[in-house]
Design a protein that fits this description.
about 90 residues; mainly alpha
């Protein structure tokens, strides 16, 4: 009787591993889970800490207001929104 039960238990083709067996996919799933965990931790640390902005400046430390104003004027001049006279007048007023 026990021999029949043993044969029937193994007849499902899962080798007695509760339905999944094992193999290469366990390595893949484990690797994906580990990489996902590392990415999640790095993302959480970067979003919750005072890391650098996309342009490399530290958060909370803004650009010099005068340099920012000059940069904006130069961009507007380059796009043709300001004439040469308007650009020079505004730069001289800084």
């Amino acid at each position: 009787m026990t021999a029949i039960a043993a044969v029937l238990a193994d007849a499902d083709g899962w080798d007695g591993h509760m339905g999944w067996g094992g193999g290469w996919w366990m390595f893949v799933v484990g690797t994906v889970m580990m990489v996902g965990s590392v990415v999640l931790v790095v993302w959480l640390v970067r979003t919750t800490s005072g890391g650098a902005d996309a342009d490399g400046r530290a958060r909370g430390q803004g650009e010099d207001p005068l340099a920012s104003a000059r940069r904006i004027l130069a961009e507007r001049y380059a796009r043709g929104e300001l004439s040469t006279e308007e650009y020079r007048e505004r730069v001289d007023q800084m």
